[in-house]
Amino acid sequence: NWTYELGTKNTFGNFRFNANVFMVKWSNQQIPAADPGNPAVLPIVITLNLGNSTSKGVEFEGAWAATEHLTLNGAAYYGDATYDQGTFHLNFARTPAICDNVVCPRNGEISGNDTPRAPQVMGTVGAEWTAPLAWGTGLSYSLRGDLTYQSKAYADEMNLAWVPARTLANASFGVSAERYDVQLWIKNLLDEEYAGVASIQQPNVKYDSTLGERRTVGLTARVKF
Fold this sequence. Notes:
By secondary structure, the chain is mainly beta. It has strands at 2-12, 15-26, 30-34, 45-49, 53-65, 70-83, 121-132, 140-150, 153-154, 162-163, 166-176, 180-187, 195-201, 206-211, 216-223. A nine-stranded antiparallel sheet has the order 1-2-5-6-7-8-11-12-15, with no helix packed on it.
């Protein structure tokens, strides 16, 4: 593949802003596919060259030290990854036929479809408060919260199934000194139930999905030597 990227990194006093635009041209992608020379209900899976795709988009990232103790940060991504014209997927064009020219084309054409597991929009916003603890202990503490968003992502090249969009919240509280720090963190703070990933399994054309982690609480300790 050929990757082209143009970016900028900037610091303006207590504000940081980075951005970039990109385009990726991918030729002759390799994928596991049903052997077109083995017309069986459960065909042999081999590696084939699927075709070409183009991915292009923009990314932004920034942070602002609003006060001595408060820092705000955010990041955003928009991408459009699609298959080029004349791209066919033989998993959907095999014998016996699994497409009916209504739900999906029998010739397996996926031109213009989104590539799987590639959400178009992702973003995150966060805030962190840090300050020294009182009483001259030499300790400081931090309190952080984040929201992350991901738009839906297709599970297959034919775009027949997808993982829905999701928004998750995370939080953490930490205490640190010169040589050590301890952090209590919570992932998926609101205990959202969501599909993490989904994929199409060969050779029986079955969709599998895996649920994402529910609310998870942990404690991390670090020591510097």
